From TrEMBL:
Pathway it works in: Amino-acid biosynthesis; L-histidine biosynthesis; L-histidine from 5-phospho-alpha-D-ribose 1-diphosphate: step 7/9
EC assignment: 2.6.1.9
Quaternary structure and interacting proteins, as annotated: Homodimer.
Protein name: Histidinol-phosphate aminotransferase
Top-level taxonomy: Bacteria, Pseudomonadati, Pseudomonadota, Gammaproteobacteria, Pseudomonadales
Originating gene: hisC
C-alpha cells in the first residue's frame, strides 16, 4: 500500500553530489569553500551556553537580519533568514505557485528546482540557454508565454560560471509577470573589479527575490543558513505565514551572524579562490581542456575524448579515473554537459594534486 500523493509517487528525488565519509578524499564536486569559516565563528560556537537551548530561538533571526540589512543597505524587513537556500526555494514555490501552475527555469541549471516543483505538483518549463550559455534575447517573453508564476535564474550561473549584468536582470524582471528568483549562491566570487550589484533591484521591483547563502562564500555548508533579499510585500507571506515558526535554530543564527560580520576575512578567502581559479583555469587549458571563463568558485571544462594507451578517455572516463584516485569532480550525464566536468576550485595543494593526476591519466 502506498500512501503518497500521486505526484510524489511519480517523481524522482534530488541526486546529491557524492559526500564521502572519509576526509582523505579531495573533494572538488559540490562547490564548497576550501578555506575554514572565520575564527569568529568558532568563538561564537564556544560562546553558546547550552542552557540557552531550553528556550525557543528568536523567531525572525533579528540579529542576523540587522547585520545583513546593514551589509546590503536595505531595511531588516527586506531580509528573511532560512534553513539553507534550499528552504528558501521551497518556500518560494509553496507560497507563490499552486499545484498545476507552471514554474520556469533556464536549462541547464540547479537540478533542485525541478524536484521542488514536482513536490508542489507544478509543471516545469525549461528554457534552453543559447550556445554560448547566455539567456535567449526573448527570455522574459518566453516566461510570460508559458504562464510561469515563478522563474529561476542562477547568477553567476551554475554550472557555467557565466554572469548576467544587473541591468539585464532588471529588464527581465520588468517584463516578466511572475516572481523572478535570482539565485546568487555564488555571488561572493565575482571579482570586485566588476561592479555587479542586484540588491537595488528589490527596491524598485516588487517581484524580485535574491537568494544568498552562507554555504559557499562563508564556508558554512554544514550549518544550513541562507537568506532572501526582497521587497517587504514579497517576503511578508513567507515571513508570517508559510515558513516554519522557528525555521532557523539558535546556534545557526549566532554562527551565521558571526560569519557575516567577518567581512574582511571572507573577502580574503574570496580573493584566494579567485587567484586559484585563474591559475587552475590556465593550467587546465594547457592540458587541453576548453575552459569557460567563470565568475564563480568552479570551472566548467570541456574534455575532447581521445585514445590514451589504447582506451577511449572521454569526460566520464576521466571523472571515473579521478574518482578511483580519490579526487571527486562533478560529471553530469545530460545533454550538452556529457563532454564536460565541473571542477570546484580547491586549495593550491588540492588543485596541484588534481592537475598532476590528470597529467598522469592523459599520458602527459
Ligand atoms: C549551493 C546552492 C544553493 C543553496 O545551497 P544551500 O546550501 O541550501 O544554501 C542554491 N542554489 C544554487 C545554484 C547552489 O549551487
Amino acid at each position: 500500500m502506498s500512501y503518497e500523493r500521486n505526484n510524489i509517487r511519480d517523481m524522482q528525488g534530488y541526486s546529491w553530489g557524492e559526500q564521502p565519509r572519509q576526509s582523505r578524499v579531495i573533494k572538488l564536486n559540490t562547490n564548497e569553500n576550501p578555506y575554514p569559516p572565520a575564527p569568529e565563528v568558532a568563538q561564537a560556537l564556544t560562546d553558546v551556553n547550552v542552557a540557552e537551548l531550553r528556550r525557543y530561538p528568536p523567531p525572525f533571526a533579528d540579529d542576523f537580519r540587522e547585520v545583513a540589512a546593514d551589509l546590503h543597505g536595505v531595511s531588516q524587513n527586506n531580509i528573511m533568514a532560512t534553513n539553507g537556500g534550499d528552504e528558501l526555494l521551497r518556500l518560494i514555490i509553496t507560497t507563490f505557485a499552486d499545484a498545476g501552475d507552471t514554474i520556469a527555469m533556464a536549462e541547464p541549471s540547479y537540478s533542485l528546482y525541478p524536484v521542488l516543483a514536482a513536490v508542489q505538483n507544478c509543471k516545469m518549463q525549461r528554457i534552453p540557454l543559447n550556445d554560448d550559455w547566455g539567456l535567449p534575447q526573448d527570455f522574459a517573453d518566453q516566461l510570460n508565454a508559458s504562464g510561469a508564476r515563478i522563474a529561476f535564474i542562477v547568477n553567476p550561473h551554475a554550472p557555467t560560471g557565466r554572469l548576467l549584468s544587473a541591468p539585464e536582470l532588471a529588464q527581465i524582471a520588468e517584463t516578466f509577470q511572475g516572481v523572478l528568483v535570482i539565485d546568487e549562491a555564488y555571488v561572493d566570487f565575482i571579482s570586485p573589479d566588476i561592479s555587479y550589484n542586484a540588491v537595488p533591484l528589490v527596491k524598485q521591483l516588487d517581484n524580485v527575490i535574491l537568494l544568498r547563502t552562507m554555504s559557499k562564500g562563508y564556508s558554512l555548508a554544514g550549518l544550513r543558513f541562507a537568506y532572501g533579499i526582497a521587497s517587504e510585500s514579497l517576503l511578508a507571506p513567507m515571513l508570517f505565514k508559510t515558513r516554519d515558526s522557528y525555521n532557523t535554530d539558535l546556534i545557526s543564527q549566532r554562527l551565521a551572524t558571526a560569519a557575516l560580520k567577518s567581512q574582511a576575512y571572507a573577502r580574503e578567502c574570496w580573493q584566494r579562490v579567485r587567484d586559484e581559479r585563474s591559475r587552475l583555469a590556465s593550467a587546465l587549458s594547457d592540458l587541453g581542456f576548453d575552459v569557460l571563463p567563470s565568475h564563480s568558485n568552479f570551472l566548467l571544462v570541456t574534455w575532447a575524448a581521445r585514445q590514451v594507451g589504447g582506451e577511449l578517455l572521454d569526460a566520464n572516463a576521466l571523472y571515473q579515473a579521478l574518482k578511483a584516485q580519490g579526487i571527486l569532480v562533478r560529471y553530469f550525464a545530460q545533454p550538452r554537459l556529457q563532454d564536460k566536468l565541473r571542477i570546484t576550485v580547491g586549495t593550491q595543494e588540492e588543485n596541484n594534486t588534481l592537475l598532476q593526476a590528470i597529467r598522469g591519466l592523459a599520458g602527459q
